[in-house]
Amino acid sequence: MYKSHEVMVRKLKFATFLYQPEPAEGVDINFYRIKPESGTVGKPNPSMYTNIAVFGDNALAQKHPEWISISKDGPAFRRLTSPKVNGINPGNKKYNLRWDVLCMTNPEVREYNLKLIEDCARQTPGISISSQHFADHGFCVCPRCVELWRQSGLNWYDWRAKTVTEFLKEVRDRIGDKPLYVNMLPDPVLGRERFGYDFDALAEYADVFVIPMFSKAYPSPWYWEMLARAFKSKLKKPVFTNLYVRGPNDDPNQVPTADQLLTVAVRIARTGVDGIIFLAENAQRIRDFQKAAVNSTDILAELDGYGGDEVLTLVDRWRSLF
């Protein structure tokens, strides 16, 4: 039988990651994706932290395809990009690109995003940034990047890491002492070689690192637990993970179940991470998940004793919402 965990002391922070500017109840922090990788831009909500996807920008890539990041295996266009650019489909099958990625040394792109970040920092409690790195290994070899690399006197990987770190420093300079959440793609081993992450250098400017762990199903929770442990051991600032509930236009039959989300959240919580975020289209999708979690008595009973009791305590608190 499921038992209450109200007596447990909460250690973890819990948050949402939403595509609409309405905060959800029952969590510590709400992030609004004011500029997701689609490139659309909303209006800040003063009661929500703001997330900005920087160089991942489908809209700007379609408007300025000449600004796209380049590798020897082609440009950083996602597969099946629509509309077509110059009459052809430019999707790059050599990489697993979920969105179009612009060159991160492009001065117009940098300033456009830095101004947006600065403006949002003035109006909202804190800033979250994502896609603030190179597209993947091999990027970017546009003439500007190659020349900047040669002028630096550094080797290729050191120059890319320095470029990513310096951009984060510029973000910090623009937002002052506002909390800065830095999203990093989930590769704890080759993050430097692929994206230009220097974990120690980035920690000088980040307040919190966020590791997205998005999936339409979580049948193998050990895998996500392993990633959480790896990042917690490597990063010198607090670590949050981000789990996928239900995004825009998702088929409700093709998203994680409440049982899966609770299981993976508990398994991640016991790794010592500092926070867990739940991605959803809007506050109503979070409320649907909260209600399903409250009613998942069998799995809650099973998870008792796993070592992630902060999640069970959270679900106990959600009972008051219904």
What report would you give on this structure?
Mean pLDDT is 94; it is low at 1-10. Helix 7 packs parallel to helix 8 (258-269) and helix 8 packs across helix 11. This protein has an eight-stranded parallel β-barrel with strand order 1-2-3-6-7-8-9-10, surrounded by four helices. The chain has eleven helices and ten strands. With 322 residues, the protein is of the alpha/beta class. It starts with 12 loop residues before the first strand and ends with a helix. It has a domain at 13-56 and 106-135 and 177-321: TIM Barrel (Alpha-Beta Barrel), CATH 3.20.20.
Q: Which features characterize this protein?
A:
single chain, 322 residues, alpha/beta, TIM Barrel, eight-stranded parallel β-barrel, two-stranded antiparallel ribbon, 11 helices, disordered N terminus
* Rg over C-alpha atoms, rounded to the nearest angstrom: 20 Å
Encode the helix/strand succession as letters.
EEEHEEHEHHEHHEHEHEHHH
Largest sheet: 8 strands, parallel, barrel
How far apart the termini lie comes to 21 Å
What is the topology, as strand order, of the major beta sheet? 1-2-3-6-7-8-9-10
Report mean pLDDT, rounded to a whole number.
94
Q: Tell me the number of strands.
A: 10
Q: Work out the helicity level.
A: 25-40%
Q: What is the SS-derived class?
A: alpha/beta
> Do you know the CATH architecture of the domain at 13-56 and 106-135 and 177-321?
Alpha-Beta Barrel
General form:
globular
Query: Tell me, what is the CATH class of the domain at 13-56 and 106-135 and 177-321?
Result: Alpha Beta
CATH-assigned fold name of the domain at 13-56 and 106-135 and 177-321 = TIM Barrel
> Strand share of the residues?
15-25%
Low-confidence stretches: 1-10
Number of helices: 11
